[in-house]
Amino acid sequence: MPPPGSTHSKFERHGGQSDPLVIGEFSSESGIDDLGLSQTSLRNMYEDDDLISRALSNQRSITGFPITRSNKVLDMDRKLEKSFKEKIILKNDLVKEMIAELLGTFVMVTLGCGSIAQAVLSRWILGQIITINAGFSAAVALGVYVSGGVSGGHINPAVSFTMCFFGRMKWFKLPFYVAAQFVGAFLGAAALFGAYHDALMDFAGGQLITSGENATAHIFATYPVSYLSVPNAFAEQVLSSMFLHLIVFAIFDDKNLRVPKGLEPFAIFMLILVLTCALGMNGAAMNPARDLGPRVFTALAGWGFEVFTAGNHFWWIPVLGPVVGGILGGFIYIYGIEIHHAHPAPGQRLQKVDEKHELSVMM
């Protein structure tokens, strides 16, 4: 059946040919509105839905003629053609980066603290200090793999602050990154609590204890040994965080012996492993989110606010110490190594590295 109205003569000129892919003599000014056709009427005239979809996607009428459609119709077509995946894709880059940081930190805390939980709750039968150090180091590397391609894989407020301090990330992003990291750490502690709930209840006869022989709070956050003074604890956190940031800057320095692309998280694994083996007597937190997020969870989950008073109010040291250590480590590397690299030859331009890949974050 030929289209109504003015198109009739055009069909006759082709001997009644009705193949929409070969008919077409209208000028490019012709439009679907001028023809008086709609998608509904077109579908009533032609039963080939696939043909209709192809014609519409090429912005042609069902007869193959070039058409000019209104923006409203074009928007409607695009919405109809979108898949479910396309509909849920996020458009805002900052939101994408926040989700990546949240998930990366969630992975790190759940699996890292999980390696501690398995050792402690089995009373060191199913784990030892080496499995804790190796497990947490691997958890950090995996967290970086999860988030690195989107946000840079910071998963650490101290690293995000250091990047902003040295101009490698915009300051306005800092509160969003930090919030995502704390939420991810909190949720990681909650997930681990759910996974080991029965074991936690059985460990000390249903009690959730912060200190002593049957303590379990140290599964989630770091606590000092009894003899450690506050100044010594703070110095330890600053020193370990200084090494963390200094070496991270080296790993991601293009002009140094940079790790092959994609293997940076493995280098981070080795870095965290050696730091926990060398400077880990008090948990080697080196990460405000990794320590404070789970500590807040334990306060709410049944351990009480003793988690903030234990160890002579130790809680603030893993929060502030890594920030100070991060600035110190970044300063030492930048002004001790980075600025002394040979300058590019005249006319040679350094390749610009996208902001999110300039530096990744660990633990």
What proportion of the residues form beta strands (DSSP E)? under 5%
Topology order in helix (H) and strand (E) letters? HHHHHHHHHHHHHHHH
Which superfamily, in CATH terms, is the homologous superfamily of the largest domain?
A: Glycerol uptake facilitator protein
Structural class by helix and strand composition = mainly alpha
CATH fold-level name of the largest domain = Glycerol uptake facilitator protein
Q: Could you report the average pLDDT, rounded to the nearest whole number? A: 83
Q: What is the percent of helical residues?
A: 55-70%
Cα separation of the termini:
70 Å
* CATH class term of the largest domain: Mainly Alpha
Q: Sheet with the most strands?
A: none
Morphology? globular
Point out poorly predicted stretches: 5-37, 59-63
Tell me the radius of gyration.
Answer: 30 Å
Which CATH-level-2 architecture of the largest domain?
Up-down Bundle
Q: What is the strand tally?
A: 0
What's the domain count? Answer: 2
The count of helical stretches stands at 16
Write the layout of secondary structure elements.
Blueprint: H1 8-13, H2 32-35, H3 39-45, H4 49-57, H5 71-81, H6 84-88, H7 93-121, H8 129-151, H9 157-165, H10 174-195, H11 197-203, H12 230-251, H13 264-279, H14 288-303, H15 306-313, H16 317-336
Helix pairs in contact: 7-8, 7-10, 8-13, 9-10, 9-16, 10-14, 12-13, 12-16, 14-16
